[in-house]
Amino acid sequence: MSQEIRVALAGNPNSGKTTIFNALTGSRQHVGNYPGVTVEKRTGTFDISDTRVHVTDLPGTYSLSSYSPEEVVAQRELVDAIPDVMVVVVDSTTLKRSLVLLAQIMQTGDRIVLCLNMADEARTAGQKLDKPALETLLGFPVVETVGHKGQGISELKDAILKASQLERTPSRLVLGERLDTALAAITFHIAKTDIPKATHPWHAVKLLLDDPLYVDRLMEKKGPGKRAVQQAALERKKLEDLCGEDISLFVTQRYYGFVDGLLRETLLRSAHIDTRALSDRIDAFVVNKVAGIPVFLLVMYAIFWLTFTVGEYPMEWIEDLFAWSGDAINGAWPEGKLDVLRSLIVDGILAGVGGVVVFLPNIILLFLGLAVLEDTGYMARAAFLTDRLMHRFGLHGRSFIPMITGFGCTIPGIMATRTMENEKDRLTTMLVLPLMSCGARLPIWMLLIPAFFPPEHRASMLFGIYAIGIVLAFLLALLLRSTLLRGEEAPFVMELPPYRVPTMRSVVGRIIDRSGAYLKKAGTIILAISMLMWVLTSYPKPPEVVDVPAEQQPSALEYSIAGRIGKFIEPAIAPLGFDWKIGVATLGAFAAKEVFVSQLGVIYAMDDFDEDDDEDIGTLRDALARDYTPLVGFSLMLFLLIATPCMATVAITRREAGSWKWAFLQFFGLTAIAWVISFAFFQIGSLLL
Ligand code: GDP
Ligand code: MG
Questions:
Q1: What is the pLDDT of residues 256-281, one digit of tens each?
Q2: Which of 252, 422, 452, 523 could form a disulfide with 633 if both were Cys (CB 3.0 to 4.6 A apart)?
């Protein structure tokens, strides 16, 4: 490549930035039909003629302010990183609101390409725009796209290349004489400092608005920087006296004024947006005070039901395949040779990894359901519906998205809390997030529920365990908000995106990502731990005691290291109904939740081998049903739902919360709560049954 350029994508939440990013770079980032899906910037590349283009997908923002962490990320990239070209992605059906961000970016001195996305919806709605006139007025390329169908993407690439060759010219943004004069007066001083792009009015706007990020930065520059800050204070006072209104209101209105003028010149026919009308009609039923929540519960129940009933068939095929492979290896293995290796492969690797892989179909189904709900825009409604309820518990609508994300995996859920402006809101959400039953816990439920409960109750049990997690999360949030994290909550207005038909590409793409990640985990961390577990359950071998009948020989499993560790912790977990085997598997779950399943797989495979009896105990599920009661089974489910977030969660909480204190509180707090709840459940249950 003879040259390289850097491009950043900016835009309002839900304008289709990530879709455009994926279409440009051919990657598959998470797209969702609700605001706030992308919280960290992501990068990718594409080539055009002999230029390599590096693209960054920024978190969505409505404006260039620096209140929430995601806005800070966007802002840093927009203003400080100085990309060669800034692509501003707007939703064509909401031009008036979307173009305010464009106006702000025009002040930063970037070369811009305006990408009018969702052109399909605007067209259907009957909107007509004079694109050539818009290009002339703005002075940079304008491209219409339909992101998820890939329409307009090659034009967009051409426009990016073209824009990168333009001069960085002063923008044609006009904000009214008074404001423009004030900005010029402030910029006069800023231009004498060495901050990047000092001559563009953006810094002046931020000083005028008294943004601490910018004020601090200029104060560091001493002389001229300090004078710029003083000048800004002067201009602010002057403008406020003159107009009798708050300066930020005044500035915002000037931006809207610019957008209004622009649209008056270029909008040939304004839209009569009927995707909205249809959405409103659906919403009359779905976002209904009475029916809303029951409909939501029903929808979720249907997904869990599908996960079970449809998932059962492919699950059995995979199970059979692994059982068959184990038998085949056992059968073909030369008698008495390298028995250790045979045991490692069959009882360690196949039993451990196989135990986890069999649940792949269920993972696929659950995420298919969630992906469809997200992409249609239904999840945003669910957030809206539960907002009032969540307020009572000191959470709010903004917590909903991280929490839904947490059903997939706690880690991105915790990252998604970055959209929250209020630090206490954010910490509360982060701390209770592990209670959202993540994808890694699904295999546990898929193993335990059929082992202990009859088919007609299985979907309800699955639904129930998720529900218990959510209810506990709410209660715990309430507790935190009224003790450690007491304080005001930030107001939040959730806007509802229009309903959209989910695209095959997005849904399938996400399922492939999920399954890939699941299999990768099975092939790496689960594989490694299964092998370790095999060693721990195989060694040391008990000494051969002569003169003692076979039944009184010490069991090899109990004699092994794993057995001893299990026996050691048994007293602590016996009151919950657990024995040492469960104890060992539960310890393993700290590494990754699925490990619980693979551990039990290995333990039982070893047990089977060890006793050398010919009666087949069948699947792991049958073995569990034989050894434990449903009461123990449910006590165990409660414990695994609540206790010990996995290693990676502890690490990410520490990083995002900024101190070990919160990570420890989360870890030990949840474990203690789990113990108490399982204890109470098991003891009371034992009395009653
Ligand atoms: P972001 O928040 O800006 O990153 O937006 P996303 O890329 O996550 O997209 C939001 C939603 O809009 C998704 O459901 C996309 O499938 C959908 N979408 C993206 N581009 C278009 C488009 O051009 N037309 C239509 N009808 N939908 C689109
Ligand atoms: Mg995005």
A1: 888 888 888 888 877 655 556 677 77
A2: 452
